[in-house]
Amino acid sequence: MRVTDAGGATGTASMWAELVAGLPIGVLLQDEQGTVLASNDLAGELLGCTAAELRTGARPAGWRARDEGGSALPAPADLAGQVLRMKASLAIPTVVTRPDVPPVRLWVSYHPIRRPEQWLVLVALRPVHTDVSTAQGLLDPLTGLPNRTLLLDRLGQALIRADTHRTLVSLVLLDLCDTAGINARIGFRRGDDLLVTVAGRLREGLRADHTVARYAGDRFAVVAEHPTGTGEPIAARISELVGRSVRLGETRLRPTARVCWLTTDGSTPAHRVIAHLESRLAEAVRPEPGGAGNADPTRL
Asked: Given Cys at both, which of 53, 196, 232, 260 links 49, Cβ 3.0 to 4.6 Å?
């Protein structure tokens, strides 16, 4: 167990060592700047860093930590700041790579903790020996898309990057119409086929760096990062993809949907973005059969 000065009290260091030395996960304690105040040995092993490198923020040559989509993670100070501003936990599927060493897949979670004199961030690193998202139950079993949990995580990361780099994030929600009627007319199996078809069209028809997720039931969501503009072109593309004719067994139909988008500069928390857009989608008028309709656009 290695401990840096976490407040100057010997008792604190002793308690820390006793609690975390034997844990099967890596543990880091950070301040609001993302500086590592203490760590257990496993954290360094999982991250491929020495205790000194963890404390100073230095990393070995060629060391990289990215999310599962391949995007670089925000700086430790940005992550710590986000967690402490929101006073809410954040989890990121992470892949650590180094030259000539197999990639290390981790489920990294950040938790705000309060001490009498300051707020700190507790970081837990759990090794995952397969695909991180699959191992953590983050993929929708029907469509193979990220589920709501992973969507919220990806949205949170995108908002941090936008706030840090002065870019924009658009979230688009899509609500398929009349799925209950389709299930009643041609069966639940064909209804599932429709969801799988829509999922495939979105995944193949949108940019590879967009996150396409099954949000809930017959709803899908897309997170897109862009330097300028709004989510309107993305929403239009989604409407076009969804509105294409599809054959389900002996039945051919043209799906209809409500599509609502929101663009933000990253200063709005993820839960507020979601709540605002859900409200807008609920107010949207259902489109006429044979087409996809857009709810009023929103920008935060």
From this structure: 53
Query: How far apart are the C-alpha atoms of 300 and 290, rounded to whole Å?
Result: 31
Other CB atoms closer than 10 Å to residue 225's CB: what's the count? 20
Do 105 and 97 touch, CB atoms closer than 8 A? Answer: no
What is the average per-residue pLDDT within 263-267? 92
How many beta carbons lie within 10 A of that of residue 52, not counting itself? 11
3-state secondary structure of 22: coil
Copy the structure tokens of residue 110: 């950040």
The pTM of this model reads 0.59
Q: How many CA atoms lie within 13 A of 70 on its CB side?
A: 4
From residue 199, how far is each of 77, 124, 138, 140, 221 by CA, in Å? 36, 33, 16, 11, 10
Please report, to the nearest 10 degrees, the dihedral formed by the alpha carbons of residues 251, 252, 258, 259 taken in order: 130
Non-local CB neighbours of 165 within 8 Å, separated by 6+ positions: none
178, 122 Cβ separation under 8 angstroms: no
